[in-house]
């Protein structure tokens, strides 16, 4: 009986380790100079082949005063595609990301989660661990962007997929 309990414990630990899947973590990053324009990154579920997406965190830097808006589920973005990067590319669990990532995103108005005012030269760091995306619907998305400014902007978002 002890042997069976030990095997069950090992199985549970193995299953938990697999579900955390450290090789399935991704990031998207955009650094740009804008002139009387906004910058926005959108992480969006595809219309098929979706995965459970759990966000880890994000940050936004503005060289000038700006307002940063976090929103979700806007009309599907269609341009401009941004390449995402696997954070652990040599890990045996690494997969190709299923989500679509857009910069200078044309995502439509969604539900605003929060807006933050940043002073010039400030960086906003967000803990997004409670944010998830599920489902095969292109309007299932999360966007992080600035208002229209003239200056330098850096936006980064990290997430994991299961």
Report the top-level CATH class.
Answer: Mainly Beta
Overall number of strands: 11
Shape: globular
- Please give the share of residues in helix: 10-25%
Estimate nothing, just give the exact number of structural domains: 1
Percentage of β-strand residues: over 45%
CATH topology: Jelly Rolls
Task: Quickly give the CATH architecture.
Answer: Sandwich
Q: Please, what is the average pLDDT?
A: 85
Low-confidence stretches: 1-19
Task: Return the structural class.
Answer: mainly beta
Output the helix-strand order.
HEEEEEEEEEEE
Can you count the helices? 1
Largest beta sheet, briefly?
6 strands, antiparallel
Beginning-to-end CA distance, first to last residue: 34 Å
Rounded to the nearest angstrom, the radius of gyration is 18 Å
Characteristic terms for this protein:
6-stranded antiparallel sheet, 162 residues, 12% helix, 5-stranded antiparallel sheet, 1 helix, Jelly Rolls, single chain, mainly beta, globular, disordered N terminus
């Amino acid at each position: 009986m002890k042997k069976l309990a030990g095997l069950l414990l090992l199985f549970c630990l193995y299953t938990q380790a697999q579900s955390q899947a450290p090789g399935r973590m991704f990031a998207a990053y955009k650094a740009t100079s804008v002139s009387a324009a906004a910058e926005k990154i959108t992480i969006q579920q595809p219309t098929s082949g979706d995965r459970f997406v759990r966000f880890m965190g994000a940050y936004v830097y503005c060289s000038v005063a700006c307002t940063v808006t976090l929103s979700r589920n806007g009309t599907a973005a269609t341009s401009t595609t941004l390449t995402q990067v696997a954070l652990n590319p040599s890990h045996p669990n690494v997969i190709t990301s299923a989500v679509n990532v857009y910069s200078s995103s044309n995502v439509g108005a969604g539900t605003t989660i929060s807006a933050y005012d940043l002073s010039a030269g400030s960086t906003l760091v967000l803990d997004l661990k409670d944010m998830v995306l599920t489902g095969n619907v292109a309007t299932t998305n999360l966007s992080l962007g600035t208002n229209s400014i003239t200056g330098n902007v850096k936006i980064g978002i990290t997430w994991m997929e299961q």
